[in-house]
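Hello Y.,

Per our agreement to keep a running log of every chain we model this quarter, I'm adding this entry. I've kept the format consistent with earlier entries: sequence first, then predicted structure.
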Amino acid sequence: MNTPPGLVGAAVLFWGWQTALLPLAVVAALILEASRLVPWRWHFARAEFDRLADLSTLLLLGAVVYLGLTAGANRAVIGVLQWLPLICLPLVASQALSGGEPIELATLFWTLRRQARREGAARSPGFNLAYPYVALCVLSASAANVRSGAFYVAVCVLAAWALWSVRPRHVSAAVWVGAVLGVSLLGYGGHLGLHDLQQAIEARITEWFEALIGRHVDPFRTTTHIGQIGTLKLGEHIVLRVEPREGRAQPLLREATYNAYHSSTWFAVDSSFAEVPPEGDGATWKLRPATGRSGAMTVSGALRRGKGVLALPGGAFELQHLPAVGLKVSRLGAVKVDEGPAFVSYTALLGPGSSLDGPPTENDLKLPPREAPLLSRVVEDLRLRSQRPPEALATLGSFFRTRFQYAMFVPERTAGPAALEDFLVRSRAGHCEYFATATVLLLRAAGMPARYAVGYSTDEFSRFENRYIVRARHAHAWALAYIDGAWRDVDTTPGEWRSAEAATASALEPFWDLWSWAGFLFSRWRWSEGQGTWAGYLGWFLIPLSAALIWRIYSRTRRGRAGARTDAPERVAARPGADSEFYMVERRLAELGFERAPGEPLTPWIRRIEATRPASITTAPIEPLVRLHYRYRFDPLGVSASDREALRATARSWLASHDAAGVGEALGSKER
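Predicted structure for the entry above:
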């Protein structure tokens, strides 16, 4: 083997330690390192190496089939990866015991062997498997996934062990070791940083994917996190942008409303949708008759496949600049788009007293049977039934504001009635879904119709964009109460929920916001319906530019392919080492009766000639010639000009002194 002594054995032992296969690793290490201790060598012909490679292939296929049937697909991949050093051991051990005979690439691939036999081409040059096998052992050890610092230390030691023999000779050992230690420490720090970066990128890609496919809201059902364990995790990516056109911005944007509660899930019962006809321009939709105008807001965001539920401020009676094939409104106030663009930027006109919600029904007073006794006790304690609706709302708001706190982390609870009871009686801490659900059910227990609403809070103003931005973490839930003939928003979640959510923002949030803003500008231009503006003309201007770019790339590719066909023979002829003069020496020796056996290494061949040669044939210059030939043939860095000239001159000098006729005549006279 051409590796430093003990390196391969150490790599195998490291693999066995990490994968809990240490007994097998000890045996394998002894076999591989024994080649340095025993004086004899085995001679393996090329065909025998081929058979050993086929054996390893069969072992690999057997491991894949067995582990696939017994361990499942996911664990099978890890299992096969862990067993690869043993699977490849026959081939690596045979090369080690043969004295490092190079193994051809075709030996590893049956298809290359078949192609060589079919075309009659020469086999590819050989290489040593020792270093690739060391790398394979490290890779297989990593499959055990032992997350400890010892793994990194061992990998650094193996790498330093492998590099020690090729270190620059002009650098002292102390300096070299110090440099390796420094690089190792920097690498460990980089590893930790890359791990954190990977987690951040994965989270960001998830958020981008969610933003790409759009917000998906089911207008008929929503499952809350009531009773679940852990932290309520919401993304920081921007999902909507809001620009007040007239008046002040509305604090809440509603997407859907629900009126039936069962086991932590809200449903929309008797909530059929009705078609809304568009106006003549196809982008204006009158949701209900106007009773006056008090403001206007523009909302921009993505639609999943051109469909989805719109986020609307309270009091919206008309939508403008919304190109869509169809629009529907439910009895509970949800507005759904059918077959619209992937990006929308619509303006909602607001009016006093305007509401898309239908009048209350018996469903808006129903209580879940299992929660009813608890709710009645709380209502009695607060004396809500004896108060007028405005007073009851004030009492309920004070109850949640003074006796409860907002919490993103929810400890272990039981879903269903026990979770709501724990929230109202014991823990008195939860996120907005707890507050909204409890408020709706308590209002119903007090005799007031109420519904559960979901959407977003709009309270973050971006000075950079000069508009409100709505992030995924601004998703919110609140109650709707029917008071004095109208539905009113009732938000009892403590106000600190906004600061608690904002505290989860990452330090890179401004960077992501800038990226999101660039995407917003592109989407707004891409889906702009305006004509005659510079953006519209820019789109037409990009068409010829794109065509010119495509033609230029195509032309270069075509010229490149033509040049590749022309230069191919030259590249084949210029294969490094193919013009080595040693091949002439080899042919001359064959002419003199010392033919090299198939698969026989050069060094043993020369030694065999040395043992049987006559005095007329000298082999002393051939051994350094073999070393120069190997470097010229296989060294990726090649040889220097002086070494190349030495190879040429030595070979020609030997050929001149060993003319076939003259040497043959000398051999004949010796026999006589």
